[in-house]
Amino acid sequence: MRSSARAAIAAAGAAGVLLSGQAVAQAAPPSAGPGAPGVGDPYYPDYGNGGYDVSHYGLKLHYQPATDRLDGVATVRARATQGLTRFNLDFGLAVSKVTVNGRAAKFRAEGQHELVITPPRTLRKGRHFTTVVTYGGVPSAVKIYGFTSWQRTTTGGVAANEPESAWWWYPSNDHPRDKATFDVSVTVPTGHQAISNGVSTGVRSKGGWTTYGWRETRPQATYLATLAVGKFDVVKGRTPSGLPYEYAIGSDLPADVKANALTSLKRTPEILKWESGLFGRYPFEATGGTVPNTKAGFAIETQTRPFYSPKFFAKGKPNYSVIVHENAHQWFGDNVSVHNWKDIWLNEGFATYAEWLWSEHTGQATAQQLSDETYNAHPAGDAWWNVLPGDPGAKDPFADQVYDRGAIAVHAIRLRVGDRAFFQALRTWQAAKGGGDASVAQFVRHVERVSGKNIGDIIKTWLYTAGRPATAPGH
Question: Which CDD domains match (predicted)?
């Protein structure tokens, strides 16, 4: 994610109201019990849920842009990792019905974003089960912790944010540790488009409505799922390597913004080819990007189809750096996701360093020069140095320091181990951890194993120690 105006997560707010269903739970065997209401992330303990692992989300949605009304049926396939008498999904819209394995289940809203489900029969450990949730509401009107991650646009709406965006459009086990595959079907008024992740599974129209299908077959974290509905100028094709791409730019954006956005997006295949040489084979089956007419000030690495604010293209020229950044995340953040949100440096430090490498690659400032420039921009005593990229805090995990001081840390590692070992470590990291999640500690061990060199002092100095280090890397 790269933002021009990052805001801290609000501390309070009200979630949408969920309606209760009716069912009777059978007595549980002694080994069974309720699943945890969170995965225990140190920053966001109630994000995600315990007791099960999701394998697939099937979403059937109906959206009316004029009223921002979203109705849906979510089919969640999962496996119980313990005996379950009840379990939670993270969600904020109003729910009218829940079934588990085809039988009506009892459910209730709890806290800010918990949908608590009691199946009619206890789910035994290891059992695969299917939960179907029927729901609806106006996503932009639902505030959780004081905000909504659903963005109204002039012609529709967009779901794109982190660390939370799923709550406003589908129920999920909302944490990067639990990835799944996705099928998304979205029905919208004819004349509008609906864009999500992965490859298109078809478009069909009937009676003034058009349904768009999308499929993501590679493991995807819940916050990386996206939905953009509106009126877009769409450019489709295939990259030289055969990947299908789709670029969607808000039709009512200013002409110069649209031109700059399209010029920038069209370099995606070239950028992906270059990044593949650094990080390893591109891990997904499609690519592209969306630029809706939204007031948001950030871009985010929604899997295969990054979201870009039009503000990135409103400065009179194309912006290739943001394309490089969000597509670097397809490896660092999407293919290998954070184990905890505290590990966010693994996403943002490396995506920012990819921008520095691109600058070097295209004959502009070298990574060394950009590292020096960043270091020199913040003198000793500047409070900027007090935010730790390895532990930025839950209030603002996307602070500038995670990106920029974090990129200096990456450069320091590169200098310590040398280019050959550095890029070998990046490629083998993707091969070893792709499709899953990882922590900073695991990355450090991996680099040291590949390079044969210790980087513990670099990690301590640049990620976990407040204050300006005495010297910049390379000096």
Answer: M1_APN_like (cd09603)
Average predicted confidence (pLDDT) for the chain: 94
What are the start and end residues of each CATH 1.10.390.10 domain in the chain? 341-463
Tokens of 357: 């490498």
**Cβ atoms < 10 Å from Cβ of 416:** 17
3-state secondary structure of 102: coil
Q: What is the pLDDT of residues 331-344, one digit of tens each?
A: 999 999 999 999 99
At residue 64, φ and ψ (nearest 5 deg) are -110, 105
- Counting other chains too, the contacts that 449-454 makes at CB distance below 8 Å and 24 or more residues apart are 450/417, 450/421, 450/424, 450/425, 451/416, 451/417, 451/418, 451/421, 451/422, 451/425, 452/421, 453/416, 453/417, 453/421
Mean pLDDT over residues 437-444, rounded?
98
d(CA 184, CA 395): 32
- For the ranges 27-41, 246-260, 271-285, 367-381, the lowest mean pLDDT is seen at 27-41
The CATH code for residues 341-463 is: 1.10.390.10
What pTM value is reported for the model? 0.94
Going by C-alpha positions, the residue among 342, 277, 333 that lies closest to residue 47 is 342
Q: Which of 152, 153, 151 has the alpha carbon at shortest distance from 252?
A: 153
Per the CB < 8 A criterion, the answer to whether 367 and 357 are in contact is: yes
Q: Is the pLDDT of residue 112 over 80?
A: yes
Rounded to 10°, the helix 400-417/419-433 angle is: 120
> Given 3-state DSSP classes, what are the helix, strand and coil percentages for the chain, each rounded to the nearest 5?
30, 30, 40
10 Å CB burial of residue 472 (0-12, 13-18, 19+) is middle
Q: Domain 2-336, CATH 2.60.40.1730 — does that match?
A: yes
Residue 6 in this model has a pLDDT that exceeds 60: no
Helices (H), 191-291: 255-265, 268-279
Closest CA to 314 of 297, 289, 290: 297
Q: Which of 22-36, 43-57, 189-203 has the lowest mean pLDDT?
A: 22-36
CB within 8 A of 349, min separation 6: which ones? 389, 402, 403, 406, 407, 409, 410
Residue 420: partners with Cβ closer than 8 Å, 6 or more residues away: none
Residue 42, exposed/middle/buried by CB under 10 A (0-12, 13-18, 19+)? exposed
- Do the beta carbons of residue 433 and residue 379 sit within 8 Å? no
CATH 2.60.40.1730 in the chain is located at: 2-336
Cis peptide before 283 (omega within 30 of 0): no
